[in-house]
Amino acid sequence: MRYGIFSDTHANIDALEVVLRAFEAHGVDTLVCLGDTVGYGAVPDACCDLVRKHASITVLGNHDAAVAGRMDYSYYYDAAREALDLHRSMISDANRAWLEELPYSAQGEGDVLFCHGSPVRFEDFEYIVSVDQAEACISVWERLGKVTFIGHSHLCRAFAVSQERAHEVVTESFPIRPGFRYVISVGSVGQPRDQDPRASYTIYDTDTETFEFHRIEYDVERAARRIFAMPGLSDAFGARLLAGV
After folding, report:
1. Which residue in 152, 215, 207, 204 sits closest to 182, CA to CA?
2. Long-range contacts (CB closer than 8 Å, 24 or more residues apart) made by 115-118
3. Intra-chain end-to-end CA distance of the chain, in Å
4. Topology given in CATH for the domain delimited by 2-243
5. Which helix (H) or strand (E) segment is 242 a member of?
6. Strand 2-6 and strand 30-33: pairing?
7. What is the pLDDT of residues 154-168, one digit of tens each?
8. β-strand 147-150 against 181-186: which pairing, if any?
9. Cα(49)–Cα(126) distance, rounded to whole angstroms?
10. How buried is 217 (Cβ within 10 angstroms: 0-12 exposed, 13-18 middle, 19+ buried)?
11. pLDDT 10s digits, 208-244
12. Measured between alpha carbons, how far is 27 from 1 in angstroms, rounded to an integer?
């Protein structure tokens, strides 16, 4: 099984369409979305339509939960909260119902776990971007898959976790090694935050047990212009796409 795994589209239709075409070119078997299809961007409804159409597995992200009325987001900063309010008014009833039913986690073939944030407490949507945060997963060792895929941070990070400690894996592709469980943060399709504006996506082959990070260019300026032209969205969301932050 070749999984195409992506996350954090954040209503960026220009990036999502390019990533979906890339997955088709790679010939993956199954697409998996790790959440946050909505939030920040200008085209939430059409992005929901595409994810619903193409992803066989989708899990709940925190922005999805907010738009679906499944969490309190009153503490979010003003611009993020206003974007979520806007997206609640923009998506169709069918897409809202879909968000309302998304699971916090899902199991895949080959002992794979999918969730949006840390698997320690799915509903808390905690980040994993450091070795210390990865080591917290030792407390739920039996819950972890051989590979656990997460989103949320918008960063590409990979950690090999033993029952004693975690190690960061710093390479764009690597094999899964015996004795470890891996936690992999797949980056963001629609709002990367590592100073690289290109969209992120990943591929995992359960037969060969190999993983790959990928980046691809898309029309970032067009995506930013959509945000600048959308009443109710902060211009900062468009500016950060251009900078990749």
Report:
1. 204
2. 115/34, 115/59, 115/148, 115/149, 115/150, 116/7, 116/34, 116/35, 116/36, 116/59, 116/60, 116/61, 116/62, 116/150, 116/151, 116/152, 117/62, 117/150, 117/151, 117/152, 118/150
3. 33
4. Purple Acid Phosphatase; chain A, domain 2 (3.60.21)
5. helix 235-243
6. parallel
7. 999 999 999 999 999
8. parallel
9. 27
10. exposed
11. 999 999 999 999 999 999 999 999 999 999 999 999 9
12. 11
* CB 56, CB 90: distance < 8 Å: no
The span from the CA of 244 to the CA of 238, in Å, is 10
Return the residue matching tokens 């939960």: 65
Annotated domain spans of the chain: 2-243
For the chain, the residue count is: 245
Burial of 211 (0-12, 13-18, 19+ CB in 10 A): buried
CA distance 85 to 68: 10
83 close to 237: Cβ distance less than 8 angstroms: yes
**Distances in Å between the alpha carbon of 142 and those of 113, 139, 145, 146?**
11, 8, 8, 10
* In contact, 204 and 57? CB cutoff 8 Å: no
Enter the pTM of the model: 0.95
